[in-house]
Amino acid sequence: MSTTTAQSAAGRRADRETHFEVEQFYYLEADLLDEGRFTDWLELLDDDLDYWMPTRTNRLRRQQALSIAARGEAGYYDETKESLVWRIRRFDSGMAWAEDPPSRTRHLVTNVVAHQVDPDEHPGFTSGDLLVRSAFLVYRNRLEREENIFAGQRTDLLRRTAAGLRVARRTILLDQNILQAKNISTFF
C-alpha cells in the first residue's frame, strides 16, 4: 500500500477480514484469562503497554465531562507490562491472598468496532495499527458466595507486530462507579 493510500485509509473502519482477526484475537485473550493462563496472556501485550482503568463518579448532565477521572487522578489500574508481570508472578508465588483460592471468571467481549489508526492522532502508531472499541461483561466467582459482575467498555490501540496483534494501549471504563467487589484482582 502506498503512503498516500495508507494515509487516506487511516481512521476508516476496518474491513471484514481485519474485523474478524480482531474478534478472534479478543476471543483468544478471553480464553487465556478465563483459564488462568496469565503468562500466556502477557504475550498478547506489547512491551510499551499502557493499561489504564479510571474511576468514575455520578455527575449532573452538565458535568458529564468530569465524570471520568483524568490521567493523574484516581484509577483502579494504571499499569505497564512490567507491573503486570510482577502481579502475575505474585499470583504464582501464593502470596496474593485475594486470589488464593483463585477466582473463576468468564470474559464476554462484544460490540467490537475497529478503525485503522490515524498516525497524526496517535504518534508511534501506523495506519496498519488499529483503534478498537469493545464492550465487555466479566463474571467473577470466588469461594462459595462471592460473585461479581463487571460491565463496561474497552478502548484499545492494537499494534501489528511480526508475531501478530498486540495490545499497546488499553483504557477500561467500568459502567459501575462503586464496586461491590471485595477486591479487584481481575484483568479486563
Describe this entry's structure for a reader:
By secondary structure, this protein is of the alpha+beta class. It has one domain: Nuclear Transport Factor 2, Chain: A (Roll). The chain is 23% helix and 36% strand. It contains four helices and six strands; from the N terminus they run αααββαββββ. The chain has a six-stranded mixed sheet. The longest helix has 19 residues, at 16-34. The chain is globular, with a radius of gyration of 17 Å. The relative contact order is 0.20.
What descriptors fit this protein?
188 residues, alpha+beta, Nuclear Transport Factor 2, Chain: A, six-stranded mixed beta sheet, 36% strand, globular
Summarize the structure.
The protein is α+β, with helices and mostly antiparallel strands and 188 residues long.
Task: Show the helix and strand layout.
Layout: H1 3-9, H2 16-34, H3 38-42, E1 45-54, E2 75-79, H4 81-93, E3 104-116, E4 130-142, E5 146-161, E6 164-174
Parallel strand pairs: 1-6
Antiparallel strand pairs: 1-2, 3-4, 4-5, 5-6
